[in-house]
Write a structure and sequence with these properties.
2 copies of one chain form a homodimer. The first copy, chain A, has 341 residues and is an alpha/beta fold. Chain A has 3 domains: 44 residues, lambda repressor-like DNA-binding domains (434 Repressor (Amino-terminal Domain), Orthogonal Bundle), CATH 1.10.260; 121 residues, Rossmann fold (3-Layer(aba) Sandwich), CATH 3.40.50; 147 residues, Response regulator (Rossmann fold, 3-Layer(aba) Sandwich), CATH 3.40.50. Helix content of chain A is 44%, strand content 16%. The longest helix of chain A has 17 residues. The structure holds a DNA duplex (16 and 16 nucleotides).
DNA sequence: TTGAAAGCGTTACCAC
DNA sequence: GTGGTAACGCTTTCAA
């Protein structure tokens, strides 16, 4: 492996000059630059990111802290991150988080500039203490799908999303609506479900109703199926179910099929996210720009990295639009008498 | 940020000793070790991976080179990689490859131990020259879903897979079978499609038939839809279509729906991969263990990393089993007269 | 068992 | 413009 010394020797210059060429400093004469470049090409020299990082006191990789495999949506966001990072010269390092301990471990280790130049935290709300630590460590952070004090974030308005979904149901004539989501109290501090439920309640309240049932369960299709099974067998079966994620909505579909209930004939189902399967399964849902959230998050981080000063504007929170996507799982309620609006 | 010197000072020992404690060398007295550990805890000290790597001449991250976003299956493999890497202490660095130039660039840059301790190359066949370079650079490589001279690889038998799919069709009574896949000549050197086609031809030949058509197109649903549209409108319409990937199979489904053809009534469709959407879309397919391929690949790499000697056994190629998954897109041909077996 | 010191490959500062 | 050289934070000899 050729080092910078080899290049310097071959080009007949000092290592300082080679370094300048490498970092294209303007203070190198054209002739010298050429000679150095030739030597580099000849030796097939590539600088060591490790040494460079150590010397500069900062790493050249960006950490993505992700609850990677529990949410299909995270992958989509990651795709956006990769796209947003483009060829900015940063490596993307993945940190999978499966538990709060995991999260603390990663965040703790990453709170130093020589570990990661910047951090993208997806769908996780880091405890304030860790945010402080990150800030002290000089590691810029951008939150995607989460909010935190004074930290740039890319979010959607989940309350509005909850409203959007419920309005669709109410507009169709549903009054008996059940809600399925993730537990509002959870170790990661996810708040999306709680906020969607809020929006749901608001809209229902406006027509003098409230959810016939609110069930919390894991973000898992099979678990949601089990929960939905009970819901659909209860004596006051809802005419519509609002699932806080498409994964859960697909579980509801499974349960309905299992019980011989037709969707949307016997029960309407609406999800949230619009992940890939939703199109195939024909699930009516609220689409959130997953890919775009990752792309924008990466872009914001890149900006912070380029211009650390840009940290205290007030447009810290970037809100992305939500959109109703009507497919084949929602329709007006039939059979039983509608409740009064 | 506390450094090793701070710890040494606080513990009243030399940095060498701290380093020994860090790398739990046995040559440290219990008492000393305790004092050092206390100092570490007190200072919340974490060693710099950069400095450690530079000093040891090797990085502590594993590179995953992936055609990340063109194939949904790659994500599934990556999930397996993350699982397989577990908490072995390596960072997972993602390298997205969108073009051969991309691939060469990444592989070139990664051919040094201080860049990546090891490499996982997914669904890409690196040119022999690059493999040599990697070997020279002392970077162990494991190929996932690809083969290469003398390099450990996790693969499936695509010819057998092609047979499996076609046998299913033939068993159902189909003789007029068309094949859709990716171009056999492609810049990345993918060979999966060609091998599946081979298996398909073998089985067809055994019943005295051959594909009614063989079409090549991108690994993209919409493109496959267009191709399938023509196929389904041709005068000698096949009774079944074998698509070399589920993504393409879903495109075929789109085309059929568009033309008012029923599946499997008017035409049977079988795919390959068994990605998540396939279950939702009810696509009959050949399942390949995507997650497992990633997990095993990571495990193999970890073994190489731990024991570099383990490089010349003859069980270099690990073959994973393929499995027919019958769902709702295949049935016996109807309407027209069957060709003779 | 421990301390001191020499690298590891860069960058950045300071002279020239 | 350019060359020399001290960091950067760790691991790993080599002595003691």
């Amino acid at each position: 492996m050729a080092t910078i010394d080899d290049v310097a020797a071959k080009a007949g210059v000092g290592v300082g000059t080679v370094s300048r060429v490498l970092n294209n400093s303007p203070k190198v004469s054209a002739g010298t630059r050429r000679r150095v470049e030739d030597a580099i090409a000849l030796l097939d020299y590539r600088p060591s990111p490790l040494a460079r990082g150590l010397s500069q006191g900062r790493s050249h990789s960006i950490g993505a802290v992700v609850p990677f495999f529990t949410h299909a949506s995270a992958v989509e966001r990651l795709r956006g991150v990769v796209a947003g990072l483009g060829s900015a010269g940063y490596d993307l390092v993945l940190f999978d988080v499966e538990s709060p301990a995991h999260r603390a471990e990663h965040l703790g280790a990453l709170a130093r500039r020589d570990r990661a130049a910047g951090l993208l935290v997806i769908s996780l709300r880091p405890p304030p203490a860790e945010l402080v630590r990150l800030a002290e460590g000089g590691v810029p952070v951008v939150l995607i799908d989460a909010m935190g004090d004074g930290v740039p974030a890319v979010v959607t308005d989940d309350v509005a999303g909850g409203r959007l979904a419920t309005e669709h149901l109410v507009d169709l004539g549903h009054r008996r609506v059940a809600f399925i989501g993730e537990p509002p109290e959870n170790p990661f501090g996810f708040t999306a479900t709680a906020r969607r439920e809020l929006g749901c309640r608001e809209v229902l309240a406006a027509v003098g109703a409230e959810p016939t049932a609110v069930e919390y369960c894991e973000h898992d299709r099979l678990v949601a199926q089990r929960v939905a099974r009970d819901l659909l067998q209860s004596r006051d079966r809802p005419t519509a179910i609002f699932a806080s994620s498409d994964v859960q909505a697909s579980g509801v579909l499974l349960a309905a099929a299992e019980l011989g209930l037709r969707v949307p004939g016997d029960v309407s189902v609406i999800g949230f996210d619009d992940i890939e399967i939703s199109m195939y399964a024909g699930i009516t849902t609220i689409r959130q720009p997953l890919f775009e959230s990752g792309r924008l998050g990466a872009q914001l981080l890149l900006e912070r990295l380029a211009e650390p000063s840009a940290g205290t504007e007030d447009d810290l929170v970037h809100e992305l639009p939500l959109e109703l996507v009507v497919r084949r799982t929602t329709a007006p309620p039939t059979g039983r008498r509608r409740a009064r609006g």
